[in-house]
Specification:
The protein is an alpha/beta fold and about 350 residues long. It is built from 16 helices and nine strands. α15 links the parallel β8 and β9. The two termini are about 25 Å apart.
């Protein structure tokens, strides 16, 4: 897809017109998404229906003309391939039936057959590409190994990762075994998504921000690096994003990724000044899309002024929030398109 502004920017293009897409751009704020979602009893049934996944993946492209589509899926689909059972409950979030907290439990994890067990992802990618008709690049993604391990160990969403840290400190060998197993599977899954037709890839390390710099260096960095290194062989751009992790930026930049997403609490101005050769993505506060159009447009212009002489991908500093007004999303995109 040589003419894609998004892919060119991932490869270092400096342009006044910036590519724009959103994390969680296929989601609950869109009525057409909810029409499809309501056809399924569970979230996992929805994710595993390749036709439905393809349909909602392209909805934001059709409605807004964004410069990249991101495959509708979930970061946790990898865990069942390892024998870690996941269920999603409305208002509660993901729950793990068999939290992995012992050496024995880690040793009993399966060796995944990703091509067989994630066949629905392959089908969704193929169907999405048929709908996109080569006009818009498609992004595949994984959760960062630390983030995936946090769900496996904690058994649910955790705000402090205390069980993760407990395992790391009390049984570092077991922790390493688990993270290596997850990072190898994550890297293979990234690679497969590129093989199946994705034009670029994203690593979303949602919970890395809960670690100090020292802990990140030991508990997360080697495993994220391993997953990205495996996928690098496919020669497609790889973006990295972590939430609430501005204090870790220096560490992220050591990863072999093509570009780095910044959350809204990180100073874009400082990041640009400190790292003149890096392609960044972001980083407007997602809640800004609830503001009046004039405020959204002003904030977008401020970002574009900062990045006009740099390769930069316009995005929020996190995913689109539920209930976000469609008018806010459109105002963001219009401001990007009209700049310059």
């Amino acid at each position: 897809m040589p003419e894609s502004l998004f892919l060119k920017t991932c490869n270092g293009l400096v342009s006044t017109q910036k590519p724009v897409w959103f994390m969680r751009q296929a989601g609950r704020y869109l009525p057409e998404y909810m029409e499809v979602r309501n056809q399924f009893k569970t979230f996992l049934d929805f994710v595993r229906d390749s036709e439905a996944a393809a349909k909602v993946t392209v909805q934001p492209v059709d409605r807004f003309g964004v410069d990249a589509a991101i495959l509708f899926s979930d970061i946790l689909v990898l865990l069942p391939t390892l024998g870690i059972n996941v269920n999603f409950f409305l208002g509660i979030g993901p729950q793990i039936e068999n939290a992995i907290q012992t050496e024995k439990a880690i040793a009993e994890l399966k060796d995944p057959n990703l091509e067989k067990e994630l066949f629905y992802t392959k089908e969704a990618i193929e169907k999405t590409q048929n709908l996109l008709k080569g006009k818009t690049p498609l992004l595949g993604f994984i959760g960062g190994p630390l983030t995936l391990a946090s769900y496996a160990i904690e058994g649910k969403t955790s705000k402090d990762l205390h069980q993760v840290k407990k395992l790391f400190y009390q049984n570092p060998n077991a922790y390493h075994s688990l993270l290596m197993k997850i990072s190898e599977a994550a890297g293979e899954y990234l690679s497969l998504q590129a093989k199946w037709g994705c034009d670029a890839l994203v690593v979303m390390d949602s919970w890395a921000g809960h670690l100090s710099v020292e802990d990140y260096q030991k508990m997360a960095f080697p495993y994220s690096k391993r997953a990205i290194e495996i996928a690098k062989s496919k020669n497609v751009p790889i973006l990295h994003y972590a939430n609430g992790a501005g204090h870790l930026l220096q560490e992220f930049l050591k990863l072999p990724a093509s570009g780095f997403g910044l959350d809204w609490r990180t100073s874009l101005e400082n990041a640009l000044a400190d790292h003149p050769n890096v392609t960044f993505q972001g980083n407007l506060d997602p809640a800004t899309l609830f503001a009046p159009k004039e405020i959204i447009q002003r904030r977008v212009r401020e970002i574009l002024e900062l990045t006009k002489n740099r390769p930069h991908i316009m995005n929020l500093g996190h995913g689109i929030l539920p209930g976000t007004p469609i008018e806010g999303v459109q105002a963001f995109i219009d401001a990007v398109r009209k700049y310059g």
